[in-house]
Structure formats: C-alpha cells, structure tokens
C-alpha cells in the first residue's frame, strides 16, 4: 500500500496537472473571443493565480460562457485549496508541538542529570538539582505526567522524554552520553538492578546513581558498577536517630542537604578547581581561613584524583595543597554561592568523568 507521504505527493501532482490543464483550456477559449482581454498564456496564468490567491485585481477576466465556467472552477478551487493548505499547516504545526512536548525532537543539554522514572521522590530530586542550577532530563513512560512536569519547570531547566523504558535507543534524544549522571528511580530494587545491567551494556561509561529501599543490596549494586548507591531507609533512620539525642546536629544536617535558594540559607556545595581558581597552589588551611573571612564559606573537604580514583579527604591537615582537577567541598550561604561561582569561574557540581571510583578518607 502507498504511504501517506506518497498519497500526498500524488494529490499535489494531480492538482498541479489539473491546474495547468484548466488554465490552458481557459487560454484557448478566451483567445478566440474578439472582446477578450486574456489573449495569451501568460495572461491566463496571471488571471488564475490572482483568482486562486483571492486577490482578484479585475484587470483580466473571462468573457465567454465556457471561460466564466472555468473561472468559477478557480474561484471554488481557491476556497478548497486555501482550506486544504491551512489544515495541512495546522496539522503539521500541531504534530511539531506534540513531538516537542513528548521530547521526540531531542535536546542539546550537556553535563545534565538524567532521571529515569518519575514519581514524588523523583520530583524532590529534580527540585534540588534544578535549584542548584543544573539541567535535568526526565525520562518517563507515563504520558499523563508530561504536562504536569512542563508546568512545574521551564524548558531551559528540564527536558522531558516520553518513551518506553526498554527503548534504550530513544535515550539518545535525552543526550544521555553527554550527561554527568544518570539516576535510576524505580520503586522495586530488583527491577532497578536488572534495568541497570541492561542499560550499562549500551552505555557502559556513564555515572550511575540509584536509591534503594533495601540497604543490604548496596554492595550488590556497587559490584555491578554503580558509582553511588543511596539507601532511603538508612538516610531516614540516621536522621531520625540524630533528632532523638542531638537535634541541633540533625537540624544542621538536614538544612545543608537542601539547596540554598535564599540569601541566608546554607548549602553544602562542591566546586571543580580549574585554572582560573584563585586558590590553586595554596595550602588547604590558608584557603580555609581566607574563604571564611572573605566569603563566609566553610571549607570542609577536598576531593583529589589518585591512581585513577577519586579520594575525598574530609577536613585534611595543614600541608595539603589545592590543585587543578580537585574538588572543593564547602558550606556556603545562597548569597555567597553566587559570588563563589564567579570567583571560581565554574558552576557547582561534578563535571563529566568516566571510569572513576570514589573513596573517602
């Protein structure tokens, strides 16, 4: 069977052929009339064009009975053709908007966070990531969530892709290979593990993060190549336990885990050290003092690369030098965060890295 495109091409060619034929018949008919003003083929084409476009200058018009009948065909045809063109343009524009809404046109996001699976927990993660100034690509198989996501975020912040989770080829539309991190957000831990293994076969070098309900599976996921495994139960239980006997510590911990949006709020941040960073080559302790005095930020750790691994040093001793390719971990207020971004010449968060593992000292 002929495709829709082939049918459209046939209709266009048939219409064009009919137009040329009727125009030629109009010319033959009118050129035989003594008082006709359509005396050649260019005049006939001019008349048909201004008639079809509903301009109707009136400088040319048929005088014979057959010529007027042919002119009536063009008048009626102009209404039909214009209606057809408008409907086609409307359909094409509607189809374009629908593809854009579903993410089928793709995105050029880079260094973004991809969230596979959408629910309340995924939204909380997206809110924090967007609040920190990072872009997010959300992949969901629930079409009913699309409009709700678009209403919650701007297109500059969040890209949404509607597809079946098994259609891994479609993930290219979310520019997954340029993503900084992929967060798999399914409710069932076993489903997460199976999906992770399949996803890693196609995209082996990505940085994966998963959240688990069962903390005993953390080592299993780590051995499967997940860089960061977070247990919802462990985090919640530790925070609740802290509230029971050291509530001030729990309050501070909960506060700094939340993105600082207001000027007086505090946030735990991580900044990449590039060549522009003014603390390159300086001692950690001297930098700690300077950051506190000059910018009201508290330096709490430094992440260094060592033998292909990332090593996080919490509150290292004097003599540790800050070098390019390090990460500085610090507590800053929302107001100070914006100044630090300009000072360091970078945004907060990890840059795209492949094949690194993390250790803590």
Describe what you observe in this structure.
The chain has 11 helices and 11 strands. The termini are far apart. Strand 2 (about 135-140), helix 5 (about 145-150) and strand 3 (about 160) form a beta-alpha-beta unit. Strands 3-2-1-4-5-6 form a 6-stranded parallel beta sheet. About 45% of the residues lie in helices and about 15% in strands. The chain has about 350 residues and is of the alpha/beta class. It folds into 3 domains: about 5-100, Helix Hairpins; about 115-235, 3-Layer(aba) Sandwich (Rossmann fold), CATH 3.40.50; about 260-360, Regulator of K+ conductance, C-terminal domain (Alpha-Beta Plaits, 2-Layer Sandwich), CATH 3.30.70.1450. The protein has helices spanning about 5-30, 40-50, 65-100, 120-130, 145-150, 190-200, 220-225, 230-245, 245-255, 285-295, 335-345; strands at about 115, 135-140, 160, 180-185, 210, 230, 265-270, 300-305, 310-315, 325-335, 355-360. The mean pLDDT is about 85.
Helix content: 40-55%
- CATH superfamily name of the largest domain? NAD(P)-binding Rossmann-like Domain
Radius of gyration: 33 Å
Order of strands across the main sheet:
3-2-1-4-5-6
How would you describe the shape? elongated
Low-confidence stretches: none
Q: What would the average pLDDT be, to the nearest integer?
A: 86
**How many strands, which pairing sense, and closed or not: the largest β-sheet?**
6 strands, parallel
- The CATH class of the largest domain, by name, is Alpha Beta
Number of domains: 3
CATH topology descriptor of the largest domain:
Rossmann fold
CATH architectural category of the largest domain:
3-Layer(aba) Sandwich
Distance between the termini: 67 Å
Total number of strands: 11
Strand proportion: 15-25%
Question: Helix/strand/pairing class, anyone?
Answer: alpha/beta
| N-to-C SSE string, H for helix and E for strand | HHHEHEHEEHEHEHHEHEEEHE
The number of helices is: 11
């Amino acid at each position: 069977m002929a495709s829709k495109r082939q049918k459209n091409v046939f209709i266009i060619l048939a219409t064009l052929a009919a137009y040329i034929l009727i125009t030629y018949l109009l010319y033959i008919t009118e050129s035989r009339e003594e008082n006709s003003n359509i005396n050649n083929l260019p005049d006939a084409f001019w008349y048909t064009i201004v008639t079809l476009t509903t301009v109707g200058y009136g400088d040319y018009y048929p005088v014979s009975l057959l010529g007027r009948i042919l002119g009536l065909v063009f008048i009626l045809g102009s209404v039909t053709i214009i209606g057809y063109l408008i409907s086609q343009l409307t359909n094409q524009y509607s189809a374009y908007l629908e593809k854009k809404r579903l993410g089928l046109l793709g995105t050029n996001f880079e260094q973004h966070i991809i969230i596979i699976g959408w629910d309340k927990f995924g939204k909380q993660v997206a809110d924090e990531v967007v609040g920190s100034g990072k872009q997010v690509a959300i992949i969901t198989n629930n079409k009913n969530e699309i409009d709700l996501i678009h209403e919650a975020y701007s297109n500059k912040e969040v890209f949404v892709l509607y597809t079946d989770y098994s259609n891994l080829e479609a993930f290219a539309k979310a520019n997954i290979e340029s993503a900084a991190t992929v967060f798999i957000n399914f409710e069932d831990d076993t489903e997460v593990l199976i999906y992770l293994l399949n996803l890693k076969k196609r995209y082996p070098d990505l940085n994966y993060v998963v959240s688990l309900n069962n903390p005993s599976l953390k080592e299993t996921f780590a051995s499967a190549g997940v860089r960061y495994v977070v247990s919802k139960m462990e985090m919640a239980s530790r925070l609740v336990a802290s509230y029971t006997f050291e509530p001030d510590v729990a309050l501070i911990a909960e506060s700094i885990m939340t993105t600082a949006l207001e000027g007086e709020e505090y946030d735990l941040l991580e900044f990449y050290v590039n060549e522009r960073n003014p603390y390159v080559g300086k001692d950690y302790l001297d930098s700690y003092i300077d950051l506190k005095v000059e910018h009201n930020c508290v330096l709490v750790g430094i992440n260094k690369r060592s033998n292909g691994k990332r090593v996080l040093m919490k509150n290292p001793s004097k003599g540790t030098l800050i070098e390019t390719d390090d990460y500085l971990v610090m507590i800053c207020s929302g107001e100070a965060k914006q100044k630090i971004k300009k000072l360091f010449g970078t945004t907060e968060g990890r840059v795209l890295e492949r094949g690194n593992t993390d250790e803590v000292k």
